[in-house]
Amino acid sequence: MQNLVGTHDQKGLPLWGPFTKKYMGISHISNSEQGIRFDLSVFPGFYRRKVDIPSVMWESGYHPWEASPDLSYYSHRHELEWKDQVYADIAYASAGADIRLIRCKLVNRTEAEQNLVLHWMASLHLPQVHSHGKVLQIVEVEHPEGAVWLDALDYEDLVFATPRITDRLVYDGLYRAEVRAEQFVKGSGIGMGFAQEKGDQVSYQIKLSQTLSDAELGLRFRLPKGESVRFSIAGNWAGSVELLGTGKAEVVEVNIGRCLPGTLRLDLIAQSEGSRHLELDGIFLVERAQKDLIKFNLVSTNVHPELIPGPVPNSLILQYEGIDHVYGMLWQFEDYEIKQYHSDELDRFMRHNVHHHVHPILKGEGEGHFTNVYLRPIPLSAQSENTLYGMVTSGSLDEVNRVILDWNVESPQYLNAFVEGESKIAAFEHEVQPEGKQFAFSQQLLSATLLTNIVYPVYTKRSYIRHYTPGRWWDCLYTWDSGFVGLGLAQLDTQRAIECLNAYMTDPGDTQAAFIHHGSMVPVQHYLFLELWNKTQSKELLEHFYPRLRQYYLFYAGKSEGSATRTLQSGLLKTWDYFYNSGGWDDYPPQVHVHKQKLRAEVAPISNSCHGIRIAKILKMAATAIGRMQDHVKEYDNDIASFSSSIQQNSWDEEAGYFGYVVHDQQGNPTGLLRHESGHNYNMGLDGAYPLVAGITSKEQEDRLLDYLQDPSRLWSPIGLSTVDQSAPYYRADGYWNGAVWMPHQWFMWKAMLSHGRSEGAHRIAYTALGLWKKEAEQTYNCYEHFIVQSGRGAGWHHFGGLSTPVLNWFAAYYRPGTLTCGYDVWVNNSEFSKGNTSLYAEIRYFGDSTHEHTIIACMNFGHQYRVLWNGQEIKVISLSDGTLEIRLPGDKEVRLSIKALE
């Protein structure tokens, strides 16, 4: 795990992959420090008719089809004539660290002749100021020997005179007061209202290697014209400096005299109320006589390459300014031409010019550039197919020339590349129970979507990372979605899931961010950790993540410095101050009401506190496993008791049978439940049932809520769990979450049902979801966000790999041999399936209520009868399908489970 310390990147992946934010294809990280990406996409089309551009920003005809977890192979299907009448299967495979093969299988299933084309489209992309925004223009600092430049963010500490609730949880993993700023060194500086208030302070340690006899202290900054900020200077020097705005980046200098080598302290303290628009780029120390040698040079944003003929026909080399290597392309088709598009986009511009056959260079709007290798025409007779191969590679000019010269599609290196890549794909059709094969294709599509939904660059913690996105429309971090991304990855590749979890952890003691936060504060990372532990029982995993997850928990639970989640006298948690969305459910009715009526300060939802309880229970199990942490265990027990008491005392509505949002007065004292104008409890929905997840209900409450989950007039619909009770006066058929079925909260309730021993209800949730997913995926080849209760059809983003991943978990739990699935309160100390998955031995510790039954699911190999021993005693099981065993266990704390196939 040492390689995970200090990084949030997917370090285990190669530099080549489907990282684009523009057009689907193969990408390469050209410069990891500057966040520069090279893209090569293949656009299919009909000759002199139309081009189909595989835009990742809307439904554009391509569908992720297959992918190996290590991205050594992936493919997508691009439909030219729906459905599967005329299409292109475009695949990419690794043939070495710097070589990627391209295979384009063109298929004509019609009775007509077809003339097709392929556009190889190469481009270079720079990081953007904001998601899907303009290119970030940066500068490089040039200074004489002996001078020192320090980025504004290299501070030792930054303190606002009035503390902010985000001081210890800065959004998106930025530094406190960090702002992304154009024409700044590395594109970042200090801003966000810093120095607006008197007493705002930033401190630096400046390491000087040689004496400066007459030093000049310089500050580079930007302020709107006419605005100003005054700092007092403290530390090794005393004085003041005034910053006057011109609207441009400026430098102000102060003479500070002789400076000796060593570590020098500089404090900048805002003297009075100043501009809220200050952006501070950095500071420098330099000999006064050399101050004019300090220069800030614009880094080129030129992405127009030099086109160099390759060493053989059908090859081309691209040299981009500022990139220390070249890119080479080779294609296996004789009829082609090289074209160039000078434009920021091709979605409109290329379509508009598809009939422009004369000029090889077409100029549109913006500074972008696309090099087009145009293969045309490619004839296909009726009911035929044709496969074309090619390659893209990177390296020095000599290395690229050598690779191109050595190209031989018949060589073992290239012949085996696709075979080896395809062999790494999860074998959905072969390594599953017979009953599960009906879901194999839909699982394949979701896996490919999840694995290829990864973009670069995403900026966090002053670095550019590869990041699994819920869908490419969200070119950003997203905390709770990424937790579910990790849960899905855990079914495909454990290391990918571990790195996904690590992306949202911060090192213990991090004063900038207790964890990486973006969006809804649903702590799915803790649930992901428990799944990974129960899967691996890795002590290294436990030791690495426990302190990080504890740091996350302490902030979430309102226990660490700066957290504002637990400000109410009732002790209930609320996360409104950090994001409008308590549970990811955007239009959940009581949540909408809270914001419309400006009640954030006085109303608490229930799911926040329930997650606090559950993740405290998870950390208690982890602390117990580590040992020597009785103080932590006691703390978790106290927190669990406190949160549970707060919920039970203030939230239960006997009439409605739900737990309600709790209203407080201005002093934070609870005054009652939030009610709809009709008088009904406003929380008739999944939030109102969340104490099931926490495991804190009475027997009567448990029975009532579990009945609601299975009642077709309440929360159960023909396609799964409705987010809102269908009998509520505020239920709608046309909402985003209200009136829809989503997978993530169904996963939480499914696990709760296992914990409560309600295995039939758990299976009903899973089987219904698998069938729903299968039907939509087979009809559309899409992977949607959610499903409309009224119609049963998928909706939302079409290549969604985030909150929909529980479908992979359910498939593995019930149909993939070698899978052991438990409820929330089970800690697996040891588990081992035999080769062939015909036996299982597991040692588990149960932390739940000893009076409760709970359920585990063991998916074994099919074609056998099994004997199950619990602590040496034979126990009856339910066979859900051939090889899938549902085992109900009593509340014993220590369990030895043995499953063996009968001879």
Description:
The protein is of the alpha+beta class. The protein is globular and about 85 Å long. Helix 4 crosses helix 15 and helix 7 runs antiparallel to helix 8.
Structural class: alpha+beta
**How many strand units?**
51
Shape: globular
- Low-pLDDT regions: none
Average predicted local confidence, pLDDT = 96
Oligomer: single chain
Fraction of residues in β-strands = 25-35%
Q: What summary fits the major beta sheet? A: 8 strands, mixed
Terminal CA distance: 42 Å
Rg over CA atoms: 30 Å
> Helix proportion of residues, in percent?
10-25%
- Number of discrete helical segments: 16
List the helices and strands and how they pair.
Elements: E1 16-17, E2 25-31, E3 36-46, E4 50-51, E5 62-67, E6 73-81, E7 86-94, E8 99-108, E9 114-125, E10 138-142, E11 148-151, E12 157-159, E13 178-180, E14 184-185, E15 188-190, E16 201-208, E17 212-222, E18 228-235, E19 239-244, E20 249-259, E21 262-270, E22 279-287, E23 295-298, E24 306-309, E25 315-319, E26 326-331, E27 336-342, H1 349-352, E28 361-363, E29 370-380, E30 384-395, H2 397-405, H3 412-423, H4 440-452, E31 454-460, E32 463-468, H5 479-489, H6 494-502, H7 524-536, H8 539-556, H9 589-596, E33 603-604, H10 607-626, H11 630-650, E34 652-653, E35 658-659, E36 662-664, E37 670-673, H12 691-694, H13 699-709, E38 716-717, E39 720-721, E40 740-741, H14 744-755, H15 759-780, E41 786-788, E42 794-795, H16 806-815, E43 819-821, E44 826-833, E45 839-846, E46 854-859, E47 866-870, E48 873-874, E49 878-881, E50 884-889, E51 894-901
Helix pairs in contact: 4-15, 5-6, 5-7, 6-7, 7-8, 8-10, 10-11, 14-15
